[in-house]
Amino acid sequence: MGKKHKVYLSLGSNMGNRLATLQKAIFRIQRDVGQVLDISSVYENPAVGFEGDEFLNACISLLTELSPKELLETLLHIEREFGRVRSQSEGYSSRTLDIDIIYYGYEVIDTEDLVIPHPQMHNRNFVLKPLSDIAPQFYHPVFQKDTRNLLQECKDRSKLTKTKYKLFKDRAGLFSQLQLISIEGNIGAGKTTLSSMIANDFNAKLILERFADNPFLPKFYNDQVRYAFPLEMSFLADRYQQFMDDTSQFDLFKNFMVSDYDIFKSLIFAKVTLQREEYNLYRKVFNFMYKEVKKPEIYLYLYQNTERLLANIKKRGRDYEQNIDPGYLEKINRGYLDFMKSHQDQNSLILDISELDFVHNPEDYESILEKLEDNILLSSF
Questions:
Q1: Among 175, 191, 306, 359, which residue has the least CB neighbours within 10 Å?
Q2: pLDDT at 233
Q3: Within the chain, which residues score under 70 in pLDDT?
Q4: DSSP 189-228
């Protein structure tokens, strides 16, 4: 392993979803550059030197093994991936993402491509203020003054507002802002597997539906009309009791909760299986219970086509599931989609995973995590 250097960067954005851009850029820096150590508060300020929307700015510190030249090239590549194109004549303009190297340790570098410390940092309060959050006593190797002194002497008096926004070092920090993610899907969609993977990777409390010992289930698959109502009432009572118990006891050592079911699935299945009079009675009981349960901040629905569902069901080999009618699975799927359409206030995310193998293909799993990340960023800010 090479020597690690402490680096300070300034990040800014004034186009698109500015905060989401800054957050995703930090995740990319963590992946491609080095370990992020500290992140400042997020500040908002008017565009300086040109007409444009207001900027969000922040500073971060990190450890990297990259040389200054390698660091510059990597950061320019990240900027380009976020839609930024620098040119010699660019001047001041709006940009999706701006990453500047402020310090590379205490080194002083002056080449055609790179000047460190940043030659304009002492003239910009939108750099010095966030920098003073994380490095108030760091000495400028040329001016021999720390950040607080540079800020006091800075002649830039443009408006700078500290925002309530917060940026995180990694995805685990972002996910920990949630209380509950519910992962739903049809029979055999893979919701339990995905819930378990996320709980393991991001230190979440795992809430799994327990129903394998329901005495009505094998009978229901053989005689649906006769056993539908006692089965659905039994499920509802069990789910309600379990969900209330599991979600009311938050584990202090876990970051959030992830569940492989949502209590509303009871109504979806009941609507498919029950006669109209039975369903109307069932719904009255359900509505009382549903008012009491915790609602997820993200309702993630895993869509799989019927052919793939049947293959998964066959593979997992539960005897009582082997004769499930494909038409029944299609009705269940329609029930879920209707539920999400009729609950526009709920933050629902539908993912078609018919062509994905998130268990064996890390890229497929990563694509699901990115969708969750985007959803949190776009719905939270």
A1: 359
A2: 92
A3: 1, 48-52, 84-95, 211-212, 317, 320, 380-381
A4: SSHHHHHHHHHHHTT-EEE----TT-TTHHHHHH-HHHHH
Q: Of the listed 146, 223, 238, 260, which one is catalytic?
A: 260
Beta strand 180-185 pairing with 161-162:
unpaired
How many CB atoms sit inside 10 A of residue 267's CB?
A: 18
Q: Do 57 and 43 form a contact (C-beta atoms < 8 A)?
A: yes
Question: Which amino acid, residue 367?
Answer: S
CATH at residue 226: 3.40.50.300
Domain tally, the chain: 2
Separation of alpha carbons 5 and 3, rounded Å = 7
User: Domain range spanning residue 270?
Assistant: 171-380
Listed as own residue / partner, the contacts of 359-368 with beta carbons closer than 8 Å and 24 or more positions apart are 359/190, 359/193, 359/197, 365/197, 368/194
Residue 284, beta-bridge partner list: none
Q: Is position 238 annotated as part of the catalytic site?
A: no
For the stretch 72-116, pLDDT in tens is 999 999 999 987 655 444 445 556 899 999 999 999 999 988 999
The closest alpha carbon to 46, from 36, 38, 56, 37, belongs to 56
Do 175 and 156 lie in one domain? The reply is no
Token pair of 98, please? 């701006």
pLDDT (tens digit, 9 = 90+) per residue, 269-316? 899 889 999 999 999 999 999 999 999 999 999 999 888 888 888 887
**The two three-digit tokens of residue 217, written as one number:** 């289930």
Same domain, residue pair 151 and 184? no
Q: Are residues 190 and 73 in the same domain?
A: no
